Fold these 3 entries.
Entry 1:
Amino acid sequence: MTYLFDMTAPPQNQQHNFDLRSGYMLLLLLLLTLAALIWFGIRLLNNPQDLRIIAFEQIGNLRIDDPVKLRGIDIGTVKRIELLREKVLVFIETENLLLSTRDIESMTGMLA
């Protein structure tokens, strides 16, 4: 008599096939994870620019495509300027630099 759930050990050939399928699934999962990491890494390397928005009370003669300097070093360009009530929003595209809050605050002081 055969039961639905037989608790005896499977024959050696079936166990071997199960081990192979498990190994292939693990290998496939590993390759997909590696491909996803490479894809995201390439996207980050191909997009080395950040868009920052800074609010000013006045901008003087600042125009689109003007260079943005921080402590005398070019770090990006002005991409867009918008008016928002009493403030002027300046959209600055910077190179993929690590700018601290202190750097951005000093940038607002230099541009205004």
Entry 2:
Amino acid sequence: MIIGNNNVNIGSYSFIGSNSIVYFDILPYMSILFNSCSLNCFNLIGLKKKYVDKYVILRLKKIYKLILNSNFSIKEIIFLLLSKKYFSFESLLIVNFLLKYKKKYIFLKNT
């Protein structure tokens, strides 16, 4: 792994493949392969190896589908993750990460 910037934060349970160049913060449960532009999934293999419950994995799929396939701003995503539909321990971990580091993310509008 090559960190392209000294101010990169990596979320818990994230996976970064070898020879990956990381320029942006990595959200919890994310999977990065080859370069920062391939932010398209969460760390499903790592979660299965840690024997994470299948219902937790289904919640995470739903959360990351919302995050990666939407044009919502960070504020809107935080609001949705705290709503009844998405609320869980995993969503709180992601919201905490977003609030703590308040930086631009490659896949989110920063408004």
Entry 3:
Amino acid sequence: MIVERNAAGPDRGIEAAIKHFHNGDLDIAITLAAAGEGQPPETTKEYLFRMLRRLAPNDDFNLFITWLKHPVGPENATILEFEAVLVIARAITQICGRLWGNIPTIHRFR
């Protein structure tokens, strides 16, 4: 299967993240949302992640993302729904200016 990277990539990842969130697969939801958040080109507008870093510069808002992607930290961790919602919301706000009206799953997640 050949897949072309395009503007729909972030939406598909975020939609999949929301579906996994509703299925209780919080680790998968976080991983997919984080990937979706990182796909759009960098922007100068303030979205949720930038606002969080500005308001709480000493907090690590990528803690679970890093833990899931890399062999660092403890063997086990408890992931709360809040953590998954936060990463999904970060991804949504990163792309919302461009695609907000086009993704029904995102409207239902709000």
